[in-house]
Specification:
Blueprint: E1 2-6, H1 15-24, E2 29-33, H2 37-47, E3 53-57, E4 60-61, E5 64-65, H3 74-94, E6 98-101, H4 119-140, E7 144-147, H5 161-171, E8 176-181, H6 182-188, H7 192-199, E9 203-208, H8 223-232, E10 238-241, H9 250-269
Parallel strand pairs: 1-2, 1-10, 2-3, 3-6, 6-7, 7-8, 8-9, 9-10
Antiparallel strand pairs: 4-5
Helix pairs in contact: 2-3, 3-4, 4-5, 7-8
Amino acid sequence: MKLALQLRLIPQESTHDKVKWAKDHGAEGIELAAGTIDAMQKDADDLRGVLPVTTVCGNTVEGKWTFDFLDPDIAKRRACLDGSKAILKFCGKVGAVGQIVPPIFGPPRVPDLSPFMNPIQLEDELAVAMLKELGPWAAEHKTLFLLEPLNRYEQHYLRKQSDGVRLMEKARAKGVGLLSDFFHMHIEETSSPQAFKECGKHTTHVHLADNTRMEPGTGDIDFVAGFKALREAGFNGYMAYECGISGDNDEQKRKNLAKSLDYMRECIAKTK
């Protein structure tokens, strides 16, 4: 298991300084936020030879974050799919694990067509079609389209790990993986370790945050139990921080982030 940091979280000015700090403090990879291809490529160039790009988080259309995969407007869906294809091609180019995508935020956008289909059933059909198109494209570029379940306060659709697995099994498309986020799981799963035991074989990337949504070690999530279940499921990939960093200034944030990285390494060591 390897620790990574989202580039935006590192309290330094330049990309060069952020990456150097990350490496000096034991991080083994960097996760980028979705943006324009040019901007992401510049970050990747700054990382070259220091740390690998692990993943790209989010989706963009013309540089703007967009999650219209399950929208009833076909033009919006098409633009969203094409935006994802561009990012997946970039992921393949830089050797990243994949692109992390929640297919929707908020409530359903499609109508309730009961008794023919309710919104969830319609969304499932759209999502399966999405995976059948984007999965093979990702595989062609030697990367993955990573489904991210979120908690109930951020979206209605994919909330549990089993929801992501359900879609993957319905689509049966290569090039698709599951993103497992400790923060969202702490809200939605009855037991995160049990969810990893049942679904962890599909996990290809992990997001780290405590139940406070701040850096690990600031709350009450049992990371050792979660890591043990992940390891038993065969996971040995990257785990990237996606969280806030506590502290009133950059110096405090650097200190707290370094402390958290030490804590995560201790948790990982206890699983061996």
